[in-house]
Predict the structure.
Amino acid sequence: MKKGIRIFTGICAACSAVILTLVGMTMYAVPDQINMDTDPPVGGGITLLSDDPDHLSGGGAEAYNVDVRLFNVIPVKSAHVTFSQREYVALGGNAFGIRLYTDGVIVVKTDSVETANGTVNPSKEAGLKAGDAIRRIDGQAVSRNEEVADILASSAGRTLDLEVARGSEVFHTDFNTVLSETDGKYRAGLWVRDSTAGIGTMTFYDPESGVFGGLGHAVCDVDTGELMPLSDGDIVEARITGCYKGSSGAAGELCGAFDSDAIGDLIVNGSSGVYGRLYRPDTTAKTYPVALSREVQTGPAQIIATVDGTQPQYYDVEIKRTYSNDDEKQKNLVLEITDPELIEKTGGIVQGMSGCPIVQNGMFVGAVTHVFLNDPLQGYGIYAENMVQTAKEVEAAAMDDAA
């Protein structure tokens, strides 16, 4: 009798262990957020239960909660189900020139001025720092270096009210120029910048709306490293004329020439790239499905890049690692250049290749963003999902403005 009880107890313990293991595997396998159009169908003994059965066939609401059960009996967890169509975009890979004008003028550097009373740094006394954006002087909006220089030079030392943006903070400060003992002129000891230009790579665009995304990271000031606040700007076609190859400790760089005519407007300079609208998008361009972040896999992939002339080409890479940190919008994956032809031309990832789209399994999965300085063959990439989401927000904002 006791032996039978022990056998029965052992069988129950084994069954319990199996069930607990299956429950744990189910909790891991079924995400908290399920998209019925992009996620694989639920099966293998896993059942979704909803108060409205029409939901599970795509009817009813576009988003709702369901209970997840194992073998239609054991409750495992709750999940949020959504119905949405797969996004499709046309891929770029072509080099383009960026001409960006700042919202205000950017403080690049401050200097001291020799006066009759000693050395004075007016900018430091006013609390200004490199990276600050001066937007207004005595209530007058300023956006060009010449405007700021003229106002400061004619101030004759009187107190000026400066409106300054530092990141998301906006504040006012008093500013006084000082009389230079060297040349007898009023000086501010202030170096500012109102624009920047450079070459990057177009990542994708919507053939219907013309909204595009590129770079995969923000355009930042070369001296301060701060994001350049965008007032307005445009993009132009670019021809790659040469390349400084990358090496360990030194980033390479694509060299090119701009065309004079703009092909689109810049609307956003943000952490995940630059975005805008093309004037004449190719409405017949081939489109690719946009992968969700969880669909990106380690293994072989390709990037589309222009490293000579104007024609994009496909080059082999390998995705070495993927990350699931939702707070990181730029460095979502690590990739390595494996294509001998590209390595011969550039030495790996170089400046100007930011924004090169990454294709895997016939899907648009991301874009190149940064190079590892100690190993130019490797670098970071951003998920396509993050860039396309920003592009959709840009498109929605543009439609609201038009309305």
Observations:
- Confidence is low (pLDDT under 50) at residues 56-61.
